[in-house]
C-alpha cells in the first residue's frame, strides 16, 4: 500500500474540467474508491492510489489528457507518443528538447520549453490560446509531469532550486512545499522550474521495456506518487518506516544513518521546505487515514498503531490535521456523513 495522501483540493480541482463539460463525476469518484461524502470535509485527503485511478478514469472518459482545461483536446495517447520519442534521447537535455519539438506540432501549443541562456537552466511553461484553469491544475500538472518524467528517465531526482508561478499564491500553496521541495515564488513573470545545469548532461538510463511498464499507470502516477527516494524527506520517511507502535528513531540517529551531521541535515530539510517534526507528523496523518479506511480496526487501536498512547491525544492531533475527529472522517469515507 502507498503511504502517501493527496489533498481534497487536488481531487476537486481535477474534476473541474469534466464538470464544466457537463460530465457527472460522482460515478468516477465511486469507481476510484473515493466517497463523495469525504470531499465535504475541507481538509480531507485521499490515497495516492485513489487519486491515480481517478485521473486515469478522467482521461479515459474525456479522451483528453488536458482534462477539459486546455485550449484544445489532447487525445489519449499523446503523452505516450511523446515518451516513445524521448526514450531514444541520450541525455536529459535532449529529452526536454525532443518533448518540446513534439508538443509544438499541435496548435495551439501547450508545453514546457527548456531555456539554457541564463545562469541556470529553466523549464518554462508555454501556453497559447485561452485556458479554463481556475484552480491552476493544468499548469501545476505540466510542471510536475515534465519534472518527474525527466527524473524517472535519468534515474535520479532533478533537484529543483526554485519553482515560480505567474499567478498569485493560491489557498492550497502549502501543498506546493511537498510537491516541489524547493523555494517558491508567486506573482512571477513566468511559470517555471529552475535547476542545476549538471542534470542536463545526465544520461537516459531507461529502456523501451521499462517505458512500456511505466506507461501503464503514467502520467497519473507521476502526479500522485512522487519518487522521493533520493530526497532527504524520502530517505527519512523510509528510515522511520510504518510501525509507530515502537519508539521512533531520533534525529541524531537518522543523521548518522544518512552519513551527515544533524546541522547539515536540518539545513537540507529546510531547503526541501520541511522539518523532521513535520515529516513525522505527516507520516502519522497519512497512516491514520489509511487505517481509518479499514472498518474492522477500532479507532483506539488506530491511535496505538500511529504512536499515540492516549486516544484523546490522537483525537486532538487528527482534528488538527483534518479539521474533524477520526470518527467523522471514517463516516465520510463510508459515505455516511450526517448532513
From TrEMBL:
InterPro entries from the UniProt entry: AraC-type_N, Homeodomain-like_sf, HTH_AraC, Tscrpt_reg_AraC-type_HTH
Residues annotated as domain HTH araC/xylS-type: 234-332
Stored PROSITE patterns: HTH_ARAC_FAMILY_2
UniProt entry tagged with the keyword Transcription: yes
Matching Pfam families: Arabinose_bd (PF12625), HTH_18 (PF12833)
Transmembrane segments: none
Domain of life: Bacteria
Protein keywords: DNA-binding, Transcription, Transcription regulation
Protein name in the entry: AraC family transcriptional regulator
UniProt source species: Marinobacter qingdaonensis
Amino acid at each position: 500500500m502507498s503511504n502517501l495522501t493527496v489533498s481534497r483540493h487536488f481531487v476537486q480541482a481535477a474534476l473541474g474540467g469534466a464538470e464544466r463539460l457537463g460530465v457527472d463525476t460522482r460515478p468516477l469518484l465511486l469507481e476510484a474508491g473515493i466517497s463523495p461524502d469525504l470531499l465535504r470535509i475541507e481538509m480531507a485527503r485521499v490515497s495516492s492510489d485513489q487519486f491515480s485511478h481517478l485521473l486515469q478514469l478522467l482521461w479515459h472518459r474525456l479522451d483528453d489528457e488536458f482534462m477539459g482545461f486546455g485550449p484544445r483536446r489532447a487525445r489519449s495517447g499523446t503523452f505516450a507518443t511523446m515518451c516513445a520519442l524521448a526514450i531514444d534521447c541520450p541525455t536529459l537535455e535532449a529529452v526536454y528538447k525532443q518533448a518540446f519539438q513534439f508538443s509544438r506540432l499541435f496548435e495551439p501549443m501547450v508545453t514546457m520549453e527548456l531555456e539554457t541562456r541564463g545562469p541556470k537552466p529553466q523549464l518554462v511553461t508555454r501556453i497559447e490560446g485561452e485556458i479554463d484553469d481556475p484552480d491552476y491544475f493544468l499548469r501545476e500538472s505540466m510542471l510536475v509531469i515534465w519534472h518527474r518524467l525527466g527524473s524517472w528517465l535519468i534515474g535520479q531526482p532533478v533537484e529543483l532550486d526554485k519553482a515560480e508561478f505567474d499567478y498569485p499564491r493560491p489557498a492550497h500553496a502549502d501543498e506546493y512545499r511537498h510537491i516541489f521541495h524547493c523555494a517558491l515564488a508567486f506573482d512571477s513573470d513566468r511559470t517555471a522550474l529552475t535547476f542545476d545545469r549538471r542534470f542536463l548532461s545526465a544520461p537516459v538510463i531507461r529502456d523501451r521495456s521499462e517505458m512500456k511498464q511505466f506507461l501503464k499507470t503514467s502520467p497519473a502516477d507521476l502526479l500522485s506518487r512522487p519518487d522521493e527516494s533520493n530526497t532527504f524527506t524520502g530517505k527519512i520517511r523510509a528510515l522511520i518506516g510504518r510501525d509507530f507502535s515502537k519508539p521512533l528513531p531520533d534525529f541524531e540517529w537518522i543523521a548518522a544513518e544518512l552519513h551527515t551531521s544533524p546541522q547539515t541535515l536540518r539545513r537540507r530539510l529546510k531547503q526541501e521546505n520541511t522539518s523532521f517534526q513535520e515529516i513525522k507528523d505527516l507520516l502519522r496523518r497519512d497512516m491514520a487515514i489509511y487505517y481509518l479506511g479499514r472498518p474492522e480496526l477500532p479507532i483506539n487501536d488506530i491511535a496505538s498503531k500511529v504512536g499515540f498512547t492516549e486516544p484523546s491525544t490522537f483525537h486532538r492531533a487528527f482534528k488538527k490535521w483534518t479539521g474533524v475527529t477520526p470518527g467523522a472522517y471514517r463516516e465520510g469515507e463510508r459515505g455516511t456523513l450526517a448532513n
